[in-house]
Description:
The mean pLDDT is about 95. The protein contains eleven helices and 13 strands. By secondary structure, the protein is an alpha/beta fold. The chain has helices at about 35-45, 60-70, 120-125, 140-155, 175-185, 195-200, 205-215, 255-265, 270-275, 280-295, 310-315; strands at about 1-5, 10-20, 25-30, 50-55, 75-80, 90-95, 100-105, 125-130, 160, 190-195, 220-225, 230-235, 235-240. It has one domain (about 1-10, about 30-85, about 105-315): UDP-N-acetylmuramoyl-L-alanine:D-glutamate ligase, CATH 3.40.1190.
Amino acid sequence: MFDVVALGELLIDFTPAGLSEEGNLRFERNPGGAPANVLTALAKLGKKGAFIGMVGQDQFGLFLRDILVQSQIDVTGLKFSSQAHTTLAFVHLDSTGDRSFSFCRNPGADMLLRSKDINYEMILHSRIFHFGSLSMTHEPVRSATLAAVEFAKDKGVMISYDPNYRQPLWPSKEDAVKHMKVGLIYADIVKISGEELELITGYADIEQGAAQLYTAGCKIILVTLGEEGCYYQYSGGKGIIPGYYVKTIDTTGAGDAFLGAFLYKIGDCSLTEICSLPQKEFGDIVDFANAAGALATTKRGAIPSLPSLADINNLRNK
């Protein structure tokens, strides 16, 4: 039995790593891809996960597979393509550590996953199925993603969803909103940034935007707000849990660390049990996730920066 099975992109993040002697920017190869980051965060906290996706039949793809194996993530569902290279992302950091991206994905191997490539048995034997919107930017991976999430929903598996917006990867903003909304139809748990919430709902006001998602059927809404923390809404209440102030170097993967920590803390609870938690207990889970997200910003790269349980507890106890 898996705690979480995740489907989506697995790629290389080339992260700025100082200057050469000639003054040229150096990039460091780091494993990335939001669904894989979430799984690795969970694995580091002791949970059992499995990945479904596609990489290129190249050195980058082999490197990524090895990283998942080293993290004790099941790679039975990882496929290799000879038709396209592993997707590459170049991370650009501003003076505060906030990031933007450039992509080599035209196509990337992750886009070529087909419905028949999916190991549905893994999903059947999972407590939670996690996916993101970046596996719905193009076909055939869009249909594969929806086939997997529909199967999970039909079998009563809890659904976690990250409507992740990366403008360069979508044909248009309108296309992004259209398909990001489709994912919400299936979602029990939604992790979303304030900017993405406004994009999807049209509300700049976080409370109004979250209320729209809740009314549409999402049971748990988690709006990540960077250093300000997280706004949450579920059947037991709503509110903001303040964030942690740390020395930020690179925000890549912070939201994934947050979500991985949240999924870790809900443990073996059913969706009904989670939604029945008293607000104080629910808020404590969000606080734990906030600490994990903050710590992920203190190192370069996504997967290399994911915190341990001791790291998270140390920050919370300061």
